[in-house]
TrEMBL record, chain A:
Keywords: Cytoplasm, Initiation factor, Protein biosynthesis. One of its GO terms (cellular component) is cytosol. It comes from Trapa incisa. InterPro entries: eIF2B_beta_subunit, IF-2B-related, IF_2B-like_C, NagB/RpiA_transferase-like. GO terms for molecular function: guanyl-nucleotide exchange factor activity; translation initiation factor activity. It is found in: Cytoplasm, Cytosol. It holds the Pfam family IF-2B. The keyword Acetylation does not apply. Residues 147-177 are annotated as: Disordered. Component of the translation initiation factor 2B (eIF2B) complex which is a heterodecamer of two sets of five different subunits: alpha, beta, gamma, delta and epsilon. Subunits alpha, beta and delta comprise a regulatory subcomplex and subunits epsilon and gamma comprise a catalytic subcomplex. Within the complex, the hexameric regulatory complex resides at the center, with the two heterodimeric catalytic subcomplexes bound on opposite sides. This is Translation initiation factor eIF2B subunit beta.
TrEMBL record, chain B:
One of its GO terms (cellular component) is cytosol. Residues 589-758 form the W2 domain. PROSITE patterns: W2 (PS51363). This is Translation initiation factor eIF2B subunit epsilon. Residues 533-542 have a biased composition (Polar residues). Residues 529-563 are annotated as: Disordered. It comes from Trapa incisa. PANTHER family: TRANSLATION INITIATION FACTOR EIF-2B SUBUNIT EPSILON. Keywords: Cytoplasm, Initiation factor, Protein biosynthesis. It comes from the Eukaryota. InterPro entries: ARM-type_fold, eIF-2B_epsilon_N, eIF2B_epsilon, LbH_EIF2B3/5, NTP_transferase_dom, Nucleotide-diphossugar_trans, Trimer_LpxA-like_sf, W2_domain. Belongs to the eIF-2B gamma/epsilon subunits family. Component of the translation initiation factor 2B (eIF2B) complex which is a heterodecamer of two sets of five different subunits: alpha, beta, gamma, delta and epsilon. Subunits alpha, beta and delta comprise a regulatory subcomplex and subunits epsilon and gamma comprise a catalytic subcomplex. Within the complex, the hexameric regulatory complex resides at the center, with the two heterodimeric catalytic subcomplexes bound on opposite sides.
Amino acid sequence: MPDVHSLVNEFILKLKKRKVEGSQATARLAAVLLRSVISQQRIGYTNQAGALIDAVKAVGEQLVAANPVEIAVGNIVRRVLHIIRDEDLSLTTAAMAGLNLSAVSDDDDDDTSPDDHPVLSAAAVAAAARSTLRPPSLQSLLEDMPDSAAVPHTSSSGGDSEGKSKSADKNSRSRKLKHDVIEAVNELIQDIDTCHEQIAEQAVEHIHHNEVILTLGSSRTVLQFLCAAREKKRSFRVFVAEGAPRYQGHLLAKELVARGLQTTLITDSAIFAMISRVNMVIVGAHAVMANGGVIAPVGLNMVALAAQRHAVPFVVLAGSHKLCPLYPHNPEVLLNELRSPSELLDFGEFSDCMDFGSGLGSPLLHVVNPAFDYVPPKLVSLFITDTGGHNPSYMYRLIADYYSADDLVLQRKAAPST
Amino acid sequence: MGAQKKSASTVAARTSDDPEELARVPLQAVLLADSFTTKFRPITLERPKVLLPLANVPMIEYALAWLESVGVEEVFVFCCAHAKQVTNYLQSSPWFSQPNFSVATIESHNSVSAGDALRLIYERNVIHGDFILISGDTLSNMSLTRALQEHRERKKKDSNAVMTMVIKRSKLSPVTQQSRLGTDELFMAIDPDTKQLLFYEENTHHLKGTLSLDKTLLIDNPSITLHNDMQDCFIDICSPEVLSLFTDNFDYQHLRRHFVKGLLVDDIMGYKIYTHEIHSSYAARVDNYRSYDTISKDIIQRWTYPLVPDVLLLGSSATKLEREGIYRASEIVQSRSAQIGPLTVIGNNTRIGNNTTIANSVIGKGCSIGSNVLIEGSYIWDNVTVEDGCQLRHSIVCDRVVMKSGSVLSPGVVLSFKVVVGQNVTVPTYSKVSLLLQPTKQDSDEELEYADNNSDVEASSIAGTHNNLNGELTSDLSEMQGSATEELGSGGVGYIWSICEGASEEEWRHSIAPVPAEKLVELSQTMDDDLDFSNQDGNAPASSGELKPGGVSDSDDEDGDANNDSAYFEKEVVFQYSIAYKDVFPIFLNNTANFSLQVEATFLRAVHENVKVDHVILEVNSLKLSYNMEFAACAGAIFYSMLKLALGTPYNSSAELYNAVINVINTWQRLLKSYLSGKDEEIEIILKFEEMCSESAKELSPLFTKILCLLYDKDMISEDAILDWESEKKYAEESDRVFVKQAEKFLQWLREASEEED
C-alpha cells in the first residue's frame, strides 16, 4: 500500500516538524488518515478485527512517537481501535443472534460476494482460525470477556460448539466490519468537526446575565462558547488575559469585540487582582487526563489557583477528542513542550548575555518557554464536553465509554523497533 | 485511491497559489558541503565538516531540514573534500527518497574555493531561477517567505539587485572584539530605507579601530546606518546572475571577501546587494570551534526550535527532554550516583559509571564513560571510551577515542578520530591531537580542507620523525614510527600537532574553551591603554548609529583640503556623525592648544562663510566631545577667537579697536552666551582675557576695563564672577594684579552697587 504509506509518512513529517499543531487539527487529520488506513487494509477471512487493530496500532505508534505532545493524536488512535473492537463485537453478537434463528441466510450472502477466494469448507476455516491466530484472536477475547462485567451479552459462552457455523459467515462479516468501522470513524470525524458547536450549545445554561467571565489566551472552543451565549441575547462582560508569551489573548479580544461583546484585556499578572470581580473562569484545554487533570496553555494553573482562592468556578471546555485515557505522570515535563526562547526575548538584544566565550563557558542566562501547564483535578469545577457537563471525578467513567482498556498502551513493542 | 486524490489536490493547490507564473521554476538551493577552510583541522582531514555532529546530529541534516521546511524543492549538494563520504551519507539517509524534495550531489575534486564551486555549478547549467546559497554548516529556523518575496519584488523593479543577504543582530564582546560565534568584528553599512548593503568589512580588528568609508558613499546616500553588531548568517538568496558573475570574474574565490566586496566596489555594472534582517528566528554558521560550542549551546537552549534534539529530526533516535535542559536518549545505562548537570545531551546506548559528573556537554551514541569522571563543557562524539577518573574540560573528542584512566584534557583540546590518550596523561591546552601527522606545508586559508586520506598517511610515514608515539597503532599507521616521544603517555596513540606560527596568538579566540580570565584582563588593559593613549573618553563605541544630516563635524581637518571638505558638507547636506565616530575617524591630539586652534578655525570659517550660529554651536560641541573638554574651555576658546577676530580688523586707534570688539561681541554674543552656563565659565573668560592682554595681544590691555564693562553690560559676565575674580587675584603677585588695578574703579562701583542693593 504505497499510498497509505506515503500519506502516513507525510503526516508524520508534519507532526515532527510541528507544521500541524493544535488538538483539533491533529485529531481530525489523524482520524482521516486512519480511515484511509482501514479502507486500504486487506483483510483475510479470519480475524479481520485483529488485522485491522494491528494495522491501526502500527500506524498509531508512529504517529504518537512523531509528536508525543499532541495527545489528541493518541486519543484518536485509541478511539479508532475501540471502534473496531466495538463493531466487531456487535457484529459477532448480531451474527450469533442470527445464527440462533437461522444460519442459512448468512450463507447466501457469502455466495453472492465477488471475492475470488473459493468458499472453503467451514470446518477448515474454523480450524485455521483456531490454530494460527490464537493469541490476538477475537474468539479468545470474547471467551475472556464474560468474566468482566462490562460486556452485557453472554451468547459466546458456547463458542466451540458453534464454531462451524460462525466461521461460515466470516467472509460477509469482513466487508461488513470494514464498512461499519469506516462508518463509525466518519462519525468520529464529524464529532470532531462539530464539537465546538455542541459545546457552544450549552453556553446559555452556564452564562447568565451581567456576569463577568475571565479567560486566558485564545481557544476556539471558548470563542464559540462565548459567542453562542451572546447570540442568545445574554449580556455579559469578558476579561481576557493576554496569555504571554504568545499573546493570543489579543486575537481573542479582537474577535470578541468584532462580535459585540464587552471585552477587557488584562495582563496575565493582573489576574489575581481581577479575579474577585469575576463570576466564572472559562478556559480551553489541550488535553484532559483520566484523573480529571488538565493539560492547558501555560498560565492556567495560576488562574485556577486564583479562582480557587476566591471560590470562582473554573470551567474547562474540551471536545471529546481531548479526553485522554492515560493518567498523568510528571506532566509538567513529560507532557510538555518547551518552545523557542525567541518568543520571550529578542536574541540580538540579549546576545551579549549568551556569549559563552567569556566567563566560565557555561551559560548564565537560561530562557525557559513551556507551552503547557498542568492543572490538577481538584482545581477544576466543571468540564463541559460535547456530551454535557461533568465533574472531574467523573472523567474516568466518560473515558471508559470511549476507550477500551486493551489500547491504553500503544507502544508495547515499540522499544526495539526504534 | 484517496491518497492519490489527496496528493493530487495538494499539488493543484500549490500551483494555483501563484497563478501569474504557472510555469514557475521550483525553488532551488545550492548547499556547499565544504567550507574551504582549515579551521576544523585535524578533524576535517578524516571527515568532512558537514558530517560532524552538532548535538549528535550531523550538521548537514540541520541545513537540509531547514531547506526542506522553507519550501525548497531541489537541492544541489556540492561536495568537494571527502565527496564520497558525503555522497554515501546522503544515499543512506532518507533525504534521497523525500517526496517534493530532491537532493542531488555534485562532486568535484579540484575546486579549492566557493568561487570554483559556483563556477562549476554554472557550467552544469542546473540553476534556472532564484536560488538559495548556503553552506552545509549553516543552521537556521527562519522562514524565507518574507525574504524571498522582498527579493523578488526588488528584482522586478531593478534587475541589478542580485543578492539578498540574511543578517541577524548579535552584539560583540566589548573585551575581545569578536562576536559570540568567535568570528571577527564585522562592519556593515546599510541604507536604512532600502536595506541595500553599501559596505562590508570583516577582520576589522587588525585595522586598529579605524575604518575608512569612501566619501562617495556619504554623498550618494541620504542616510546610512553603520553596524558592527550584525552577524552575517551566510544565507543568501541569489539570482542566477550571481553564478555568471562568478564565471565572468574568474578570480572571485571567497563569497564575502571577493564576491560581496567586489560587487560593492564595482560601480560600473551597478549590481546591488540587499540585506534582510531576521529578528525572532535563528540563523548561524559553524565557522570555528567557538561557534561550534556556541551553536551547540543555542540548540540545547532551544533557540533553533524546532531543530532541537527532542523534536525528532530525520535519522536521530528518540530523545526526551527533562528538567533543566537534559536531553536523554531512550536507552542509557546510568549509574545512580552519576550526576548529570544542566544543558546536557546524552546519546543512545551510552553507559555512565558511578560518581561521574557531566555538565554542559554533549555525549554521543554508544559511549562508555567510567566512574569518577568529570566532563564539563565538552563534546564527546560516538563510541568514545572514557575510563575511570578522567577529566575533560571544554574539549572535543571525536569518534572512537580512548581515554585511559586518569587522563586529563585541558580546556581547548581537540582529539581527532581514534586517538588514544595514555594513563594519567595531561593533554595541554589548545592542543590538537590526530592520528595523522600535521601536513608539513601549511596550506593557506584559501586552500580547501580537502585532503586525501591516503596521501596524508603516506606523507606522515615519510615525514614521520617527530611526535610519534609507540608503534602498535590502528591498522595503517603502524610500524613506521621510530622514536617514541610519548606525548600521550604509555599506550597513547596520536600526534600532537604543533600550533602553526602566528596562529598561537589567536588560538584562544577560536577555541572551544572560554577565553581565559588572564587573557580577558590583559585585553581590557590593553584596551584601556589604547584609550589613554588616544585619550578618548572611555565609552565603549556605540554599536550602531545613523548618519544623518545635521551639523558639521569634521574632526580630521588637519590638512588643507579639510576646509574644502567641510565647506562641501555645508553646501550639500551637513553631516553629523551621531555615532561615536571617534571609532571611525582617528583623533590623536588632545591638548588644549590644539583644541583652541580648532575652535578658532571653526569660528573664523563661520565668520567668513556666514554659517549659522546654531551650526557653529554644534560644531564646537562636537569638538568639545572629541577632545573631552569642559564648557569653560570652549567659552575661553571662543572668546579668544572673537577677540582675535576683532584684532584682525584694521584699526588705527584703540577707540577703533574697541569699536571692532563691540561689533564682534554684538554679532556673536549668542554663540558665546551658549557656553556661559555658570560663574566658572565667566571667570574663565576673564582669566583668558587677562592672559591675552598681558601676553599675546598687548594692544588690548588699555581697553581691559572697557571691555569688561561691556561684557557686564551685555549680561555675559555677572558681577559675582567679576568680584570672585578679584578676590582670587587678591593675594597674587603684584605683576598679576595689573588688570585688577586697572579695573579698580569699575570694581569699586560694582561693590557699591551691590552694597546699595543690600
